[in-house]
Every structure is written in structure tokens, then in C-alpha cells.
Design brief:
The protein has helices spanning 12-23, 41-44, 58-64, 83-96, 117-132, 145-151, 153-159, 176-188, 207-218, 229-238, 258-269, 279-284, 291-297, 299-306; strands at residues 4-6, 30-34, 49-52, 70-73, 100-106, 135-141, 161-164, 195-199, 223-226. By secondary structure, the protein is an alpha/beta fold. The chain has a domain at 4-143 and 174-199: Rossmann fold (3-Layer(aba) Sandwich), CATH 3.40.50. The protein has a seven-stranded parallel beta sheet with strand order 3-2-1-4-5-6-8, with helices on both faces. Strands 7-9 form a two-stranded parallel sheet. The chain binds NADP nicotinamide-adenine-dinucleotide phosphate.
Length: 307
């Protein structure tokens, strides 16, 4: 069987992919990479191979990918400064003889006017992968609904306010799990080489609409408060969130930097993320799950945060 390597396998996205492939009987085909392979002990116990690999130590990546035919390159967490890390992974894939790279990219990156900080990391990584001559599939994920409902949601519920510089811009937020299951479909399937998929949710919505949905489902009155980029920066500065990426550091429960988040809000506001596609339906044979469903699944946690 085709051996599949997964970077970021200890993370939330990687774990969903690995477990789904294990459930398909593919444990022995999996090579799972982490800077701390002990984190993958539960997966190793199910028959996967856990290997040490660090984007910042390119030689470790070549060793980690030995024997792999397909690679799921899950984009790193150093948002705004990941290209060198991804380049090391792509070079290692070529050196190790990997045939096909599946990369987790981002929607709306073709337009150079898109101000989202993440755009540069992803468009450059896609360019490097194309230039490598390896077969590729790009999974351009929309904004994870999990980021706004599960991570930011408790703060919204506690303060009764959803504060954002995204204005009245629309996006089709998607479940991280649906994104990961699309990766599984590509890794375990055929005919995806050279394809770029937009992995989006089912509906274009403003944050004002999502705030109203959250209020309706939880029964707690909530207000959407649009702010300027400067006000959004001031809010994150007050929370001591760094402007630039800091590895492995969660500040006030948030793992991202404010240049990333403010530029992301601006990209939504200016319409660069107003993209909805049928690719999840095509890859999974069912529609993507909705933001309403995610709020409903987390209603107890959200109401607890409001109490
Ligand atoms: N579309 C969106 O809205 C959105 C939102 C959030 C994130 N994302 C993207 O999706 C990716 C996956 O998200 P997630 O929720 O699974 O993240 P996560 O749970 O924070 O996991 C991050 C993973 O990255 C690995 N990693 C970090 N630095 C590394 C390094 N130097 N070398 C090798 N591996 C490294 C970690 O592995 P170890 O610590 O075990 O080494 C971990 O497995 C993120 O990295 C980001 O690019 C997209």
C-alpha cells in the first residue's frame, strides 16, 4: 500500500486525518511527524510509525520522510514567516523521493491585493511546490469555524459582544474536521494530482449574521461591534497578543499574532474571502457542515461561558 507521511500530525488537523486513515485500516501505511514523537504514542500504539521531524532542521525532515510516497504537508503555525519552513519540507520531500504532496493552503490567495498576512506564506509555498516538479494537490481551506465559535466564542459569550474589524464582509467558514476529511479523501484516493480545491462551508455569512445565530441558538443576547483596524490592534495589544508570530505560545488562549488576525479581518471586510465552492461535496459526497451546526454542538460550552 502507498505509504503516507503527515507533518503536524500531533496537531488538531493532523490527528483527525491520521485517525480517519487508521479507521480505514491504513495504520501501517502512516508515518507521523512531530518535534516530540512521544505526543504520538497513542497513534503509534495503533500501528503507525511516529518519527522526529522539525521544519527548522531540514536534515531531520529528510530522515522523517524516508519511504513515504505521499506527503500531507500541514502548514506550520508561524503565521507570516512560514515559507522557509515549508521550503525545507518540500526540499526534503524531493530528496526522500516522495511522489505527491498535498498541501493545506488558504482560499482567495490568487489576488495579490488580498491583504491577509497568510496569503504570502501560502502563495509562495504553492509556487515552491509547483517548481519542485512533484505531483501536488492544494487544499485551500476557508476560515475555520472552530476558530471563531470554539476558540473565540467563549469570550464573545462572556462579554456579550463580538468585536471585529471584518465589518460586513462575508465568508463561508468551514469545520476543521471537514477540511481534514477532504485531505483524507485526497490522500486515500486517486485523480487529484494537479488539482486545487476550495474547501469552504455551505454559506456566505457576515460576522453580524453569525453573532445573531449564536444569540438565537444559545438564547443569550449578543451584539456585533464593528471596529477599525487600529481599534482591533489596540484590543489585541491590551491582551498582550504579540504582533509577530511566537512559536508554541498561546496568549489569552489565542495562538495567533495580531498582524495575522487584523489583516485577516481586513481581507474579510474587503471581500477577498467571499468564496463558496462545491468542492467539499465533491470530495466527501455530502455537503459541508454549517456554522449553525457547530454552535448547536457547542451550546453547553458557550452557555457555560456566558454564565
Ligand atoms: N484556515 C484557518 O482558519 C486556519 C486556522 C488555524 C490554523 N490554520 C492552519 O492549519 C494548520 C493546522 O492547524 P491545527 O489546528 O492542527 O494546529 P495545531 O493543533 O496548533 O498543530 C500545529 C502542528 O504544527 C506542528 N509544528 C509546529 N511547528 C513545527 C515545526 N517547527 N516543525 C514541525 N512541526 C511543527 C506541531 O507539531 P509538534 O508540536 O508536535 O512538533 C503541531 O502538530 C495550522 O498550522 C495553520 O497553518 C488554518
Amino acid at each position: 500500500m502507498t505509504r503516507i507521511a503527515i507533518t503536524g500530525a500531533s496537531g488538531q488537523y493532523g490527528r483527525i486525518v491520521a485517525q480517519a486513515l487508521i479507521d480505514q485500516g491504513r495504520a501501517r501505511d502512516l508515518i507521523l511527524m512531530s518535534r516530540t514523537p512521544d505526543k504520538l504514542a497513542d497513534m503509534a500504539a495503533q500501528g503507525c510509525e511516529a518519527r522526529y521531524g522539525d521544519y527548522d532542521h531540514p536534515a531531520s525532515m529528510v530522515a522523517a520522510l524516508a519511504g513515504a510516497e505521499r506527503l500531507l504537508l500541514i502548514s506550520g503555525t508561524r503565521v507570516g514567516a512560514r515559507v522557509a519552513q515549508h521550503e525545507a519540507a518540500v526540499d526534503a520531500a524531493r530528496a526522500a523521493g516522495v511522489g505527491h504532496v498535498v498541501y493545506t493552503s488558504f482560499i482567495g490567495i490568487d489576488d495579490p491585493a488580498n491583504p491577509a498576512e497568510v496569503r504570502h506564506d501560502h502563495i509562495e509555498t504553492e509556487r515552491l511546490i509547483r517548481a519542485s516538479g512533484l505531483n501536488f494537490t492544494f487544499l485551500r481551506d476557508a476560515h475555520y469555524a472552530d476558530a471563531m465559535i470554539v476558540m473565540a466564542g467563549p469570550g464573545v459569550m462572556a462579554s456579550r459582544q463580538w468585536i471585529s474589524n471584518a465589518g460586513e464582509g462575508r465568508e463561508a467558514m468551514v469545520w476543521r474536521e471537514d477540511c481534514a476529511l477532504c485531505a483524507v479523501a485526497v490522500l486515500a484516493g486517486e485523480g487529484h494530482a494537479g488539482q486545487t480545491y476550495d474547501i469552504t462551508g455551505p454559506e456566505l455569512q457576515t460576522f453580524a449574521e453569525v453573532t445573531a445565530l449564536m444569540a438565537e441558538v444559545t438564547g443569550v443576547p449578543l451584539e456585533y461591534v464593528p471596529v477599525s483596524d487600529e481599534q482591533q490592534y489596540a484590543m489585541f495589544d491590551a491582551m498582550r497578543i504579540p504582533r509577530r508570530p511566537v512559536d508554541d505560545q498561546h496568549v489569552s488562549g489565542i495562538p495567533w499574532n495580531s498582524d495575522d488576525m487584523v489583516s485577516f479581518g481586513r481581507a474579510i471586510r474587503e471581500g477577498f474571502l467571499e468564496i463558496r465552492s462545491g468542492d467539499v461535496q465533491r470530495l466527501l459526497g455530502r455537503p459541508p457542515r454549517s456554522v449553525r451546526q457547530m454552535i448547536a454542538e457547542n451550546v453547553e460550552m458557550l452557555c457555560g461561558a456566558a454564565a
